[in-house]
């Protein structure tokens, strides 16, 4: 078996999972839990998150946090005061001196969606606004709790707050959606001058109401036309297509997500949060997963009982790296593979050469990136890196 060799630890990000929603959307397979009229345990959960960080400190001594992302669930259910208390605690525990981006996910239907200036004062620098559609009928079909007016208000709040950046999260291929409606959504988003747009196709995920009772989705030909015309609209508006579903104006790419795509490290805290930590001194990479249900997490946070961990098998590292890095339209520098996996590039050179012959990747001397065809058939490309049984 190949021995991993690391020369240094990767950049380290922090992901914080806030698991509650007002209502769970029928397409969502994230670890989110509807409040159903219950009370948000805001103070208790912030305390649990800080205990969780303390538990992880021995793994990351001396490593600065470069980006932070508050995801969910619906993080904007938490008040700016609670987020301020969270960051006060984090600053006492972690090295945040070089943190260059702090993102919060915002649901336009929550009371706090219009208070982005207060979140900014608490330490937030970027917001990701879950609009999904500007069509009232489609919002209702998706089970969203906001209407179009609320989406506009949240975006206006992001502009007014003076954030470094913000993202509009938008889907296409919705139930019974026409090509004209999908492009109208995108044109509306572009007209609101966001620095960043995430635009991706709705998929039916297992163990969701949409999977159990599938809605009627557009045909493949319609989906292809939506995507082709949509890409043209975004490019014409000056957006760089830098990842499969991410589009940014210059200097507004999401740094936190880029760290994922470049197979960097991330500490994951909160109910159900996942983390990836490179232990360079031990020549291994560890995956860590938190207890999933919020009540169980609240009871166990700050103890090893809240965490399950395993080392990533060496033979799985090429697939894990490519699963992320080949989502980037410009690919990755060849030395990054060895730096992040601890493996020499030669372990996958035969597969890379075959993919290049099939015009699925472009392998220059120092860079590997997917071709347009490779991006279209990315799942097939990634299958080549799955290890044999």
Give an account of the 3D structure.
This protein is α/β, with parallel strands linked by helices and 389 residues long. The chain folds into two domains: 12-259, TIM Barrel; 315-383, Orthogonal Bundle (Arc Repressor Mutant, subunit A), CATH 1.10.10.10. It is 36% helix and 22% strand. It is built from 15 helices and 17 strands. The chain has helices at 42-56, 80-93, 116-122, 136-141, 148-161, 179-191, 209-212, 220-236, 255-261, 294-300, 317-325, 334-341, 349-357, 372-376, 378-383; strands spanning 12-18, 20-21, 33-34, 65-72, 101-106, 126-132, 165-172, 196-201, 240-243, 246-248, 265-269, 274-279, 284-290, 307-311, 332-333, 361-363, 367-370. Helix 3 (116-122) packs across helix 5.
List the helices and strands and how they pair.
Layout: E1 12-18, E2 20-21, E3 33-34, H1 42-56, E4 65-72, H2 80-93, E5 101-106, H3 116-122, E6 126-132, H4 136-141, H5 148-161, E7 165-172, H6 179-191, E8 196-201, H7 209-212, H8 220-236, E9 240-243, E10 246-248, H9 255-261, E11 265-269, E12 274-279, E13 284-290, H10 294-300, E14 307-311, H11 317-325, E15 332-333, H12 334-341, H13 349-357, E16 361-363, E17 367-370, H14 372-376, H15 378-383
Strand percentage lies at 15-25%
Total beta strand runs: 17
Q: Kindly report the name of the CATH homologous superfamily of the largest domain.
A: Aldolase class I
**Looking at the structure, what is the overall shape?**
globular
Determine the fraction of residues in helical runs and give it as a percent range.
Answer: 25-40%
CATH architecture of the largest domain: Alpha-Beta Barrel
Main sheet specs: 9 strands, mixed
Sheet/helix structural class = alpha/beta
